[in-house]
Specification:
Elements lengths: L1 E4 L2 H13 L7 E7 L3 H14 L4 E5 L7 H4 L7 H6 L4 H12 L6 E2 L4 E2 L4 E2 L5 E2 L5 E6 L11 E6 L2 H7 L6 H10 L2 H4 L2 E4 L7 E4 L1
Helix pairs in contact: 1-2
Keywords: Kinase, Transferase
Protein name: Uridine kinase
GO molecular function, one term: kinase activity
């Protein structure tokens, strides 16, 4: 496997350019998928996209976690539940991705559930105009049939995964995701982020 070293700023600029080139749909859905570092990269894309005249909205997948009664049905440290039960895939599809379709309303809910308070957010919907971009970041976003137009997967080597993921009990969930979904094969861009200060883009 060959990786091309790149600075964080240059990575954001390169990804912004690639997203801006997507014009096949009225509105574009981007996924930043990975176990760590997805939020900062998503934020790094929204500002430059706006400067290019593209309305851009960052939607963290953590705003679409299921209620605690469902997430923790088998305990708070169950890796299988983390993998299959934490993310409300249906809610993310219904409230974010479906409205972005060419025949959708264009009105996106930026978050559905406040996991800390364990209650609905009751946030207003955000209109996404034509040429708008929504950047969704989080873990386990691939393999569930979510309709993203462009996917970036942040890959960690096994050793870096153990170092950078604070929930050590969840490591089997990430291993299962790697083995069952193979997110690198599904992504448009794979970025190695063992050291977030020195990312590298995978070049087949």
């Amino acid at each position: 496997m060959r990786y091309r070293p790149i600075s964080p700023d240059a990575l954001a600029a390169e990804l912004t350019e690639r997203v801006d080139a997507l014009t096949h749909r009225r509105r574009i859905a981007v996924a930043i998928d990975g176990a760590a570092g997805t939020g900062p990269l998503a934020e790094a894309l929204t500002g430059p996209l706006k400067l290019l005249g593209r309305a851009a909205l960052h939607v963290p997948a953590t705003g679409f976690l299921r209620p605690a009664s469902l997430r923790f049905e088998h305990g708070k440290q169950d890796p299988d539940a983390r993998y299959t039960d934490w993310l409300d895939v249906g809610g993310l599809r219904r409230e974010v991705l479906a409205p972005l379709a060419d025949d959708g309303s264009g009105e996106v809910l930026p978050a559905l559930w406040d996991a800390e308070r364990d209650r609905a957010t009751r946030l207003p919907r955000v209109p996404v105009p034509d040429r708008g971009v929504v950047v969704v970041d989080g873990e386990f976003l691939l393999g569930a049939g979510l309709a993203f137009d462009f996917v970036v997967h942040l890959w960690l080597s096994p050793g870096a995964l153990r170092r950078r993921v604070s929930d050590e009990w969840a490591l089997p969930a990430y291993e299962r995701y790697e083995n069952e979904v193979d997110p690198s094969a599904l992504a448009d861009v794979v970025v190695r982020v063992d050291d977030p200060r020195h990312p590298a883009i995978y070049e087949p």
